[in-house]
């Protein structure tokens, strides 16, 4: 679930493992981002295999954070290099598609907007 982890890693300039260690602080952001992605997918008639249970999707995102603990997200790497990120295709897409489908996506929209702001300073 790149939408749940990439922007948080980039904005916090933190490796995935650091995000996982701070789960108490960031847990609600990551959790809500995952749930918003799933709500948009459901509204679009998409049912990702194995992710019917939102808790399984969240567990999958946290598993990625564990497996890639020493990695900085590609979004974070792009920000560090002063390059344009893929945020338009991640949280930006969820925000736009959610709006089209009438599904609120405030966390994904906020992450998108904050990364776009950071891109402008790069």
List keywords for this structure.
122 residues; mainly alpha; 7 helices; 70% helix; globular
Return the string of H and E elements. Answer: HHHHHHH
- Strand-residue proportion: under 5%
* Strand element count: 0
Round the mean pLDDT to the nearest integer and report it.
Answer: 88
Structural class: mainly alpha
Radius of gyration from the CA trace? 14 Å
Oligomeric grouping of the chains: single chain
Q: Please state the overall shape, judged from the principal axes of the Cα atoms.
A: globular
Q: Percent helix among the residues?
A: over 70%
Low-pLDDT runs of 5+ residues are: none
Reported for the largest beta sheet, the result is: none
Number of helices: 7
In short:
The chain is an all-alpha fold and 122 residues long.
């Amino acid at each position: 679930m790149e939408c749940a982890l990439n922007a948080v890693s980039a904005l916090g300039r933190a490796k995935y493992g650091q995000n996982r260690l701070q789960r108490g602080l960031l847990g609600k952001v990551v959790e809500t981002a995952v749930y918003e992605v799933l709500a948009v997918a459901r509204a679009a008639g998409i049912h990702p295999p194995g992710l019917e249970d939102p808790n399984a999707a969240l567990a999958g995102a946290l598993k990625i954070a564990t497996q890639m603990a020493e990695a900085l997200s590609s979004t974070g790497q792009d920000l560090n290099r002063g390059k344009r990120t893929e945020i338009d295709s991640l949280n930006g897409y969820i925000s736009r598609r959610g709006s089209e489908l009438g599904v609120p996506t405030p966390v994904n929209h906020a992450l998108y907007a904050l990364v776009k702001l950071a891109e402008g300073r790069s």
